[in-house]
């Protein structure tokens, strides 16, 4: 029972963090058709900026300033980079964001080096909020969850209740149609790209000290975020939320099971011979397959339902 | 109001518009006729800035060729595309509200006007636009553009695939639009509405204007009809 409750809580925390990252990416893709490879790099920059700012102004200032800086940086990337590259087509855009991701990583290596930073959870949030069965639940996890839920609610209200949100929603299906009604679509693109980058930055600020702030953090989480938007349906915010929680749950729960295929066969009283084919394959435990499961789910989704759980597009 | 001179447009290497000259005066209903693929929709898109125009597009004395479509819309031109481009996940009301460019400006068309003209849109105002029938979607697209209060509206194939009853509604709406002082460019393949309500007609063929005149002049000219319109 303890395992299930704790794992469920951890899944929720990690899932909402994933959602914060993937929401921006899925909106950017849905509106602009740009698969932004540099999205996770903005997440990484968020953590590094937060570390640097918190050195002299504290965590709470960093929590506000770092995402704003990342948002402005994202808007500048769209305005002066992507918009220019856009006329050469999606391949050029893809390569542009790919190059940008490498550039950000190299810059981080140059400035902060290869070693992980000592970016710590602030002391005001470094205590146990409650004890569940035999486990302590840190208040910081609850704080991460609260921030993520708050962002989800704000994003939901912004997209469904405001005029800007309705324009963004409309741009997900027919950006040209929105433009000819008199709305400045390039400016909306910049706003969404900047906003999406800011959300990734915020995820970096609150996730960097909880997970780890190192030059590899973008490459570790980036592919998972892509899996989330493919499974959720490219361009769908609700899909991103469902897929984030699904993947986080899968990965968190997988860690707790040490069963292998041999154990499964044993249930049916089947025994493998002394020299089975691919002996190691039968002994792989579920707990070791955690990193593989999101990709497996993505492959299955692409075969059975290419547009994802809530997506409108086939490609 | 609108003066198009030597307008050329390309899709890749295909030369679609090959020096189009066209004029629309204040309050006129002008119909642009022609077979499929002759460049009628491209003409509208080039005027609207959705396809890159080469040539002069003067609107109220100002050359608007090359401006982005949102800026052209703010100048006072509205476009109802053939494939409608409704926003399926938004409600009918949200689609209509999206048509309003400037919330502070007094418009010729209020939401009440639209609902009075098409009560079905009020009945379905909270329904997702993607669930409307083809005819209702056509009404919605035209009304959405009207909510932006254009002085000139370009309507591309509004009767395509619609039942005769709905075609009659479209015809009445176009007459109502003209009555309120809005100039209309009606792009049609069929002559059904064009001959009844247009003040002047243009016929396009192979990316050029091949006939210009009144509906009466057109009806006297059987060769234009035979050569450029009949299939």
What does this structure look like?
The complex is a heterodimer of chains A (315) and B (231). In chain A, β1 (128-132) and β2 form a beta hairpin. The model of chain A has no long low-confidence stretch (mean pLDDT 90). Chain A contains 13 helices and two strands; from the N terminus they run ααααββααααααααα. Chain A starts with a helix and ends in an 11-residue tail after the last helix. By secondary structure, chain A is mostly helical. Chain A has a domain at 2-216. Chain B is of the alpha/beta class. Chain B has a six-stranded mixed sheet with strand order 6-7-8-3-9-10, sandwiched between helices. In chain B, strands 2-1-4-5 form a four-stranded antiparallel sheet, covered by helices on one side. In chain B, β7 (152-156), α7 and β8 form a beta-alpha-beta unit. Chain B is globular and about 50 Å long. At the A-B interface, α6 and α7 of A face α2 and α3 of B.
């Amino acid at each position: 029972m303890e395992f299930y409750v704790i794992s469920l809580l951890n899944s929720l925390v990690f899932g909402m963090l994933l959602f914060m990252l993937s929401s921006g990416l899925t909106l950017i893709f849905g509106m602009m058709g740009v698969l932004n490879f540099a999205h996770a790099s903005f997440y990484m920059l968020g953590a590094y900026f937060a570390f640097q700012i918190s050195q002299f102004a504290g965590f709470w200032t960093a929590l506000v300033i770092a995402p704003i800086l990342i948002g402005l940086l994202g808007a500048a990337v769209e305005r002066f980079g992507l918009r220019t590259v856009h006329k050469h087509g999606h391949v050029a855009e893809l390569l542009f964001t790919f190059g940008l991701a490498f550039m950000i990583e190299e810059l981080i290596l140059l400035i902060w080096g290869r070693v992980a930073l000592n970016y710590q959870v602030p002391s005001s949030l470094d205590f146990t909020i409650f004890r569940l069965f035999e486990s302590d639940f840190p208040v910081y996890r609850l704080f991460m969850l609260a921030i993520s839920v708050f962002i989800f609610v704000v994003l939901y209200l912004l997209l469904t209740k405001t005029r800007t949100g309705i324009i963004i929603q409309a741009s997900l299906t027919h950006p040209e149609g929105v433009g000819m009604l008199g709305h400045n679509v390039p400016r909306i693109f910049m706003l969404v790209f900047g906003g999406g980058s800011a959300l990734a930055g915020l995820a970096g600020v609150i996730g960097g000290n909880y997970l780890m702030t190192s030059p590899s953090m973008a490459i570790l989480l980036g592919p998972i975020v892509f899996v989330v938007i493919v499974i959720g349906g490219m361009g769908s915010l609700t899909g991103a939320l469902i897929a984030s929680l699904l993947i986080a749950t899968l990965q968190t729960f997988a860690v707790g099971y040490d069963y292998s295929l041999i154990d499964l066969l044993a249930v049916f009283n089947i025994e493998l011979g002394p020299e089975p084919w691919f002996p190691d394959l039968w002994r792989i435990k579920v707990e070791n397959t955690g990193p593989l499961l999101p990709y497996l789910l993505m492959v299955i989704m692409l075969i059975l339902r290419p547009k994802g759980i809530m997506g409108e597009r086939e490609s | 109001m609108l003066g198009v001179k030597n307008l050329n447009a390309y899709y890749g290497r295909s030369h679609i518009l090959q020096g189009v000259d066209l004029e629309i005066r204040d309050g006129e209903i002008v119909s642009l006729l022609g077979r499929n693929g002759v460049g009628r929709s491209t003409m509208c898109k080039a005027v609207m800035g959705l396809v890159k125009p080469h040539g002069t597009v003067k609107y109220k004395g100002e050359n608007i060729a090359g401006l982005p479509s949102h800026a052209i819309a703010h100048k006072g031109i509205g476009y109802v595309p053939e494939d409608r481009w409704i926003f399926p996940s938004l409600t009918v009301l949200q689609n209509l509200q999206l048509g309003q460019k400037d919330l502070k400006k007094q418009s010729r068309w209020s939401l009440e006007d639209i609902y009075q003209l098409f009560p079905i849109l009020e009945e379905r105002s909270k329904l997702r636009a993607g669930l409307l029938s083809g005819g209702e979607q056509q009404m919605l697209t035209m009304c959405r553009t009207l909510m932006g209060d254009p002085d000139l509206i370009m309507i591309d194939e509004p009767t395509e695939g619609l039942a005769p009853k709905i075609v009659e509604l479209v015809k009445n709406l176009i007459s109502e639009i003209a009555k309120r002082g809005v100039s209309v460019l009606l792009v049609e393949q069929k002559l059904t509405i064009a001959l009844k309500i247009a003040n002047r007609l243009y016929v396009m063929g192979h990316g050029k204007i091949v006939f210009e005149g009144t509906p009466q002049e057109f009806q006297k000219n059987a060769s234009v009809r035979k050569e450029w319109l009949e299939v």
